[in-house]
From TrEMBL:
Keywords of this entry: Copper
One Pfam family linked to the record: Trns_repr_metal
Biased composition, class Basic and acidic residues, residue ranges: 14-25
GO molecular function annotations of the record: DNA binding; metal ion binding
Name of the protein this chain belongs to: Metal-sensitive transcriptional regulator
Annotated segments matching region Disordered: 1-25
Membrane-crossing segments per the record: none
Entry's family note: Belongs to the CsoR family.
Cross-referenced InterPro entries: Metal_Tscrpt_repr (IPR003735), Metal_Tscrpt_repr_sf (IPR038390)
Taxonomic classification: Bacteria, Bacillati, Actinomycetota, Actinomycetes, Micrococcales
Native source organism of the sequence: Brevibacterium epidermidis
Length: 111
């Protein structure tokens, strides 16, 4: 795992942090490249005036693929970022990481 400096999405202080997804970075990049290709394919289907239901089927597949990436990243966050904060014994930091995860889950559920 590598470390870097990150800013939380609430605009808080920066901190040195190990990202849990780093060990799977190549897999995530590969999945995102496939998703990018799917999006281009959908755009081409629209340009080629393909049947609406066929396009919607591809949009659904793209959405599922993105959800897979999102849930994988969330899982990595819980297993690494949240767990690391809890292990450090800083209750406030652990609660903040749990809140970040909760906020991310809420965003995923709404999307």
């Amino acid at each position: 795992m590598t470390t870097d400096t990150a800013t939380n999405d609430t605009g808080g202080d920066t901190e040195t942090h190990q990202h849990g997804y780093i060990s799977d970075k190549a897999r995530y990049r590969s999945r995102m490249k496939r998703i990018e290709g799917q999006a281009r394919g959908i755009a081409k289907m629209i340009d080629d005036e393909k049947y609406c239901i066929d396009i919607l089927t591809q949009v659904s597949a793209l959405t599922r693929a993105l959800q897979g990436v999102a849930t994988g990243l969330l899982d990595d966050h819980l297993k690494h970022c949240v767990l690391d904060a809890a292990k450090q014994g800083d209750e406030d930091a652990a609660i903040a990481k749990i809140q970040e995860a909760s906020d991310a889950i809420n965003r995923l559920v709404r999307s």
